[in-house]
């Protein structure tokens, strides 16, 4: 009898007997087979002892004949559901998933994944919670049915491997033998990068219906957690705008609103303070629950560079990321690049454009897993583009898109670029990443365990101590909450201080956030301009939040007796217990307390000497503080900083109104406002907005001359204008405030502070500095500085200006003003040469900003 040959493996089979089995929702016929003698000759490490059974003697060749049998069984047992039983994307959405000029609605994406789960036993879908605007936030789990039926067991395996203190090496090896690689793929956190949600839909369908060796290996060895979007609201915001603009000259433009309700593009800069519900859901329900070995974050980049980036990363790599993880990212990234090239995908770049420094962009690399990023070239949303060869970037960071190099081996020559092209590249990348996860399953699990063991050996420092006595209890609580949410273990000493040992699995995360950064001085050539970091260079939370933290050596750490940790009460509890209590100006939470007093109809009094608050006066120095009527300028050009400012005001429950161009241009602003705030935007963007022809007419224009006149009148009549960072230039250029930025025309070779923490000295007793110490660190992001003696409220010292991050040009800042209170008529113009509300993190300078809102 002729023996069948398995097409993918070449293994010869001979049938033995048939039995009926029930697999999940399907009944099918199973064929028991054994390996032929030809296989036995070529694979001497496998001995067939009985039909359907095998004994492995050596680890070479096929790992065991069960692998071969699994291949065969999945192929001919009808293990895959009939393709017709699983709805195709086209049947569900009513169009091809890759169609030009068509984007998806989030509710249809959600219903499609639920339809997949209803028709296949290889996928489960879970709603993790709700987005900011109330949309379902979902993730799919895809694996073999037996794996999905035992998810709790595999989750427990992950938990035990993640903490070597509860699992010895022998136990770990047993867990590794039977464990699965957990891979989390996250899509379209930036919703203008539209393709990956489409790719998630198509890839899920293919993985469930196509029968090929790599997919079989993936389903058997991997648990895939697939998040079709980390920004469901943005999916609909972009789709709605795109449809509205179809067939107009503005087709493919970006929406004139933030594509995350509060923080727009910065939703991928929220991975260590966890301010938004989508971030918190992803961390709590996926990262912390599943401890994935790989997190693959899918993005898009501009249209004129490489077609797809994949690691290795550019320098620098954050020093607290374990070298094992960095090497694994190199290994998997280059394997993905090889697979993409083998699939005929040109224009693949590695080791270019993207560094691996700030933890604001990733979480898992500080928690034992590795991060893979791909950045695909974009179209105009779903509208195709044509890229001429001369338009390709010759000066991309790390490569020239015209030339072959070791990290850009097969340049793309230009041409049409469609949504289908992006999806195709991403489909190949998805499969390749997951196949590497399957292929290297044991190594990835073993190294995951090793990284945790290496963290337990950390000795320098041995621990960090957060003393009980702090100026700002609210900020201290927030720091502790942040660390605890990131799975850092915290203990309490007898005096109420908080102790963070470095001998714990996630000590790298704690250390990265608690120590000062020293970003390397990277230049394009010796003595030349700086190499731009991909994001920012500092992430020292104690400096941002104004919390005292002390590193401890082993002797000091061992001498402290410790017990369990719990957070103490806050200022809000004091409001309920004693409404007439004094709320210290140094406590950030005091501002939330007084806003609640105002909201309840009560009065607030302030000590003009200390800045403390109460609902009743406590002496002659106490004056009634009137609730400010705050307006926040909202440009027609979306501003991430406006979103962060709006979020912050809401968090601390300030009453405020968004004020647009038309309202400001109408004048008579004192009728409705005491203070107007202008977020970090260039002066030209405030004055002119979108130019005519760049967007539909109703979205063009800025404040214009009428707006400037109205603002000048507002200040002259006693109003307060607050300008943040770059917007300060508007005050000097358009309102006549005499405050010239001394750094305006200085080149980056001479002055460069790309997201750094800098030391300043505050003017004591000034109403803007109440509640703050004399010396603090501020967030500087290419911020302005002025030479204004009388009006200076914060000033850089003469030396040792850098607190954390990277700074070029210290001498240019020495002695200059970083916060100015200028007068205009009877009013005030307050200029912040900083971002005092930086990404919701800079609790210490929140107080400067809040004091400006109630400036007398």
Determine the CATH topology of the largest domain. Aminopeptidase
The profile of the biggest β sheet is: 10 strands, mixed
Please give the CATH class of the largest domain: Alpha Beta
Radius of gyration from the CA trace? 30 Å
Mean model confidence by pLDDT: 92
Q: Strand fraction band?
A: 15-25%
Identify low-pLDDT runs: 1-65, 71-78
The count of domains is: 5
The total strand number stands at 35
* CATH homologous group name of the largest domain: Zn peptidases
Question: What would you say this structure looks like, in words?
Answer:
There is one protein chain. The N and C termini lie far apart (98 Å). Helix 9 (213-221) packs across helix 13, helix 12 packs across helix 13 (419-439) and helix 19 (571-577) packs parallel to helix 20 (589-599). Strands 26, 27, 28, 29, 30, 31, 32, 33, 34 and 35 form a 10-stranded mixed sheet that branches. The protein has an 8-stranded mixed sheet with strand order 6-7-9-8-10-15-11-13, with helices on both faces. The protein has 856 residues and is an alpha/beta fold. The protein is 33% helix and 20% strand. The protein is globular, with a radius of gyration of 30 Å. It has 5 domains: 4-79, no CATH class; 85-455, Zn peptidases (Aminopeptidase, 3-Layer(aba) Sandwich), CATH 3.40.630.10; 458-563, no CATH class; 578-625, no CATH class; 630-853, Class I glutamine amidotransferase (GATase) domain (Rossmann fold, 3-Layer(aba) Sandwich), CATH 3.40.50.880.
């Amino acid at each position: 009898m002729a023996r069948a040959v398995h097409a993918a493996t070449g293994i010869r089979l001979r049938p033995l007997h048939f039995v009926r089995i029930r697999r999940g929702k399907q009944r099918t016929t199973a064929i028991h087979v054994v390996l032929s003698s030809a296989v036995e000759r070529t694979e001497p490490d496998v001995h067939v002892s009985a039909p359907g059974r095998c004994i492995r003697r050596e680890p070479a060749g096929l790992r065991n004949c069960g692998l071969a049998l699994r291949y065969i069984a999945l192929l001919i047992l009808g293990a895959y559901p009939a393709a017709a039983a699983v709805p195709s994307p086209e049947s569900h959405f009513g169009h091809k998933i890759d169609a030009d000029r068509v984007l998806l609605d989030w509710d249809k994406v959600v219903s499609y994944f639920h339809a997949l789960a209803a028709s296949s036993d290889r996928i489960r879908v879970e709603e993790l919670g709700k987005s900011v605007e109330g949309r379902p936030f979902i993730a799919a789990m895809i694996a073999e049915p037996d794996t999905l039926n035992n998810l709790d067991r595999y989750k427990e395996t992950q938990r035990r491997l993640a903490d070597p203190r509860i699992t010895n090496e022998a136990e770990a090896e047993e867990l590794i033998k039977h464990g699965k690689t957990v891979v989390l793929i996250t899509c379209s956190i930036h919703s203008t990068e539209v393709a990956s949600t489409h790719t998630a839909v198509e890839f899920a369908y293919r993985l469930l219906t196509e029968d090929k060796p790599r997919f079989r290996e993936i389903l058997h060895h991997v648990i895939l957690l697939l998040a079709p979007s980390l920004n469901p609201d943005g999916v609909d915001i972009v789709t709605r705008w795109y449809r509205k603009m179809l067939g107009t000259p503005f087709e493919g433009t970006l929406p004139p609103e933030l594509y995350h309700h509060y923080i727009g593009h910065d939703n991928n800069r929220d991975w260590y303070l966890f301010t938004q519900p989508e971030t918190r859901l992803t961390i709590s329900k996926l990262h912390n629950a599943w401890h994935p070995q790989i997190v693959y974050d899918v993005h898009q980049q501009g249209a004129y560079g490489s077609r797809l980036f994949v690691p290795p990363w550019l320098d620098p790599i954050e020093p607290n990321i374990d070298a094992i993880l960095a090497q694994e990212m190199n290994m998997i990234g280059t394997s993905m690049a090889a697979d993409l090239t083998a699939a005929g995908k040109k224009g693949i770049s590695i080791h270019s454009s993207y560094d691996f420094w700030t933890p604001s962009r990733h979480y898992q690399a500080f928690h034992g897993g590795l991060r893979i990023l791909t950045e695909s070239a974009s179209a105009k949303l779903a509208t195709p583009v044509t890229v001429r060869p001369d338009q390709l970037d010759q000066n991309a960071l790390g490569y020239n898109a015209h030339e072959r190099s070791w990290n850009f081996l097969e340049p793309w020559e230009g041409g049409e670029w469609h949504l289908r092209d992006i999806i195709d590249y991403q489909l190949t990348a998805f499969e390749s990443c997951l196949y590497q996860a399957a292929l290297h399953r044991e190594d990835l699990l073993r190294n995951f365990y090793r990284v945790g063991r290496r963290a337990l050996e950390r000795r320098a420092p041995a621990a960090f101590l957060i003393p009980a006595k702090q100026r700002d209890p609210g900020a201290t609580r927030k720091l502790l909450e942040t660390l605890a949410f990131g799975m850092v273990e915290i203990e309490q000493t007898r005096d109420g201080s908080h102790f963070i040992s470095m001998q714990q699995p996630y000590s790298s995360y704690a250390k990265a956030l608690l120590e000062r950064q020293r970003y390397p001085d990277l230049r394009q050539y010796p003595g030349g301009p700086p190499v731009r970091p991909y994001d920012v260079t500092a992430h020292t939370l104690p400096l941002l939040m104004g919390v005292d933290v002390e590193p401890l050596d082993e002797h000091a750490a061992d001498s402290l007796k410790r017990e369990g940790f719990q957070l103490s009460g806050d200022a809000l509890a004091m409001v309920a217990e004693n409404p007439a209590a004094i709320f210290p100006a140094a406590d950030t939470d005091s501002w939330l307390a007084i806003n609640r007093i105002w909201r309840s109809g009560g009065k607030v009094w302030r000590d003009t000497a200390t800045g403390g608050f109460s609902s009743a006066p406590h002496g002659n120095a106490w004056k009634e503080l009137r609730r400010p009527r705050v307006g926040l300028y909202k440009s027609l050009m979306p501003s991430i900083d406006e979103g962060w400012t709006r979020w912050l005001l809401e968090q601390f429950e300030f009453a405020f109104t968004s004020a647009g161009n038309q309202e400001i241009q109408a004048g008579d602003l004192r009728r409705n406002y005491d203070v107007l705030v202008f977020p970090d935007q260039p002066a030209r963007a405030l004055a002119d907005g979108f130019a005519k022809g760049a967007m539909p007419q109703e979205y063009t224009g800025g404040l214009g001359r009428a707006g400037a006149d109205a603002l000048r009148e507002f200040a002259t009549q006693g109003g307060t204008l607050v300008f943040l960072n770059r917007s300060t230039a508007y005050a000097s250029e358009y309102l006549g405030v005499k405050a010239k930025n001394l750094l305006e025309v200085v080149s980056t070779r001479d002055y460069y502070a790309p997201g750094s923490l800098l030391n300043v000295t505050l003017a004591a007793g000034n109403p803007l500095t109440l509640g703050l110490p004399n010396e603090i660190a501020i967030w500087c992001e290419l911020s302005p500085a002025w030479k204004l003696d009388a009006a200076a409220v914060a000033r850089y010292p003469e030396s040792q200006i850098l607190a954390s991050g990277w700074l070029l040009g210290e001498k240019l800042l020495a002695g200059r003003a970083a916060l100015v209170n200028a007068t205009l008529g009877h009013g005030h113009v307050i200029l912040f040469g900083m971002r005092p509300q930086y990404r919701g993190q800079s609790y210490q300078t929140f107080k400067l900003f809040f004091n400006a809102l109630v400036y007398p």
